[in-house]
Specification:
CATH architecture: 3-Layer(aba) Sandwich
CATH topology: Rossmann fold
Helix content: 40-55%
Radius of gyration: 13 Å
Number of strands: 2
Number of helices: 4
Distance between the termini: 14 Å
Order of helices and strands: HEHEHH
Number of domains: 1
Largest sheet: 2 strands, parallel
CATH class: Alpha Beta
Oligomer: single chain
Length: about 90
């Protein structure tokens, strides 16, 4: 979970570089990008999803049961008070 899209793309780039040797697949889910394209990327079942809370909630609500977060093993979120207020605002 990322507080903003710029940070999400920076995190994604690090996963791309570090995960290249083990064929790690990741995708970025943030506002300001095409939701349909992001939904298609999520259907590919990436190993890592880097997302902002608001867009992730939007995609979960609009997917009509097509995919869920039931198989998530780990959720990493920022520990700043700002991130908690962003997450609360997304709900």
């Amino acid at each position: 979970m990322s507080e903003n899209r710029e940070l999400a793309f920076q995190i994604s780039e690090q996963f791309r570089v570090l995960g290249q040797a083990v064929n790690l697949m990741s995708t970025v889910v943030v506002g300001g990008m095409d939701m349909m394209h992001q939904a298609i990327e999520l259907r590919k079942r990436p190993h890592v999803i880097i997302a902002t809370p608001g867009r992730l909630v939007d995609l979960i609500k609009s997917n009509q049961g097509e995919w869920s977060l039931n198989k998530i093993k780990f959720l990493v979120r920022p520990s700043t008070p700002l991130s908690l207020s962003l997450y609360s605002a997304a709900n």
